[in-house]
Amino acid sequence: MAIEEDLEFTTASASRNLQWLTSVKRNGKPGMNLVEKSTEEGSLRILCRLTTEGKVFIDQILSILND
Q1: Predicted pLDDT at 15
Q2: Residue 46 and residue 21: Cα distance in Å, rounded?
Q3: How much is the pLDDT for 1?
Q4: DSSP letter string, the chain
């Protein structure tokens, strides 16, 4: 499922917000490095997955919420 559909964002807004979570923001400055983007060969669709830092961050949030 597409992120923009899940969050009810436009494609441009989803892309812009997702860029903050990658290693480099749109302006070339360091991002949060929580998400890694890639493309599937022969497809225009961008695939996203959590980096190791992203998984640690999610675990920390879940730990706080479960306390």
Answers
A1: 86
A2: 14
A3: 56
A4: --HHHHHT--HHHHHHHHHHHSSB-TTSSB----EEEEE-TT--PEEEEE-HHHHHHHHHHHHHHH-
Per-residue pLDDT, 37: 92
Q: Kindly list the averaged pLDDT for each block of 10 residues, start to end, along the chain of length 67.
A: 83 89 91 93 88 97 94
Question: With contact defined as beta carbons under 8 Å apart, do 34 and 59 qualify?
Answer: no
CA distance 18 to 28: 14
Polymer length in residues for the chain: 67
Strand partners, 37: 48
